[in-house]
Design a protein that fits this description.
By secondary structure, the protein is mostly beta strands. It has helices at residues 13-19, 128-134, and strands spanning 5-6, 25-26, 33-38, 42-48, 57-61, 66-72, 94-100, 111-115, 118-124. It starts with a strand and ends in a 7-residue tail after the last helix.
């Protein structure tokens, strides 16, 4: 049985305000650190995961149009004769973060890269013109 903990206290409040995120689900207590940045053209989410590779991550948009970042690392145990670990914390076993995206994110152009142990997800913003174009009036019959 996996213990799922709902806790957002370790995230800065600006993250919750920006992404209207009211929940945080993690599979264990050693979650990677996350930065969220914004400029005039895009948001960027950085996930610090030293020792992880892009194959360890899954980044997707779920059925509710939320950004879901998950990480699963299968640790290889080497046979180490005559070694007894008194404490072992080197690997993340499983992690998942769901973020409610702002309305101005262009979900079709989201991209991700992995470099030097940092996963960076770029969330381009829609222009004001594109936002207005997406709106439509509903005629009342």
């Amino acid at each position: 049985m996996t213990l799922v903990r709902r806790n957002q206290n370790w995230l800065p409040s600006v993250f919750n305000d920006l992404f209207d995120n009211e929940f945080m689900v993690r599979a264990n207590s050693t979650a990677p650190a996350i930065n969220v940045k914004e400029n005039k053209d895009a948001y960027a989410v950085e996930v610090a995961a030293p020792g992880m590779t892009k194959k360890d991550f899954c980044v997707r948009i779920d059925e509710d149009n939320n950004l879901v970042i998950s990480l699963e690392k299968h640790e290889e145990h080497k046979d180490e004769k005559d070694v007894l670990y008194l404490r072992r914390e080197f690997a993340y076993s499983k992690f998942e973060q769901t973020m409610i995206l702002p309305d101005d994110v262009d979900k079709e152009k989201i991209a991700a890269t992995m470099e030097n142990g940092v996963l960076e997800i770029t969330l381009p913003k829609l222009s004001e013109k594109e936002i207005k174009k997406a709106q439509r009036m509903i005629e009342i019959a």
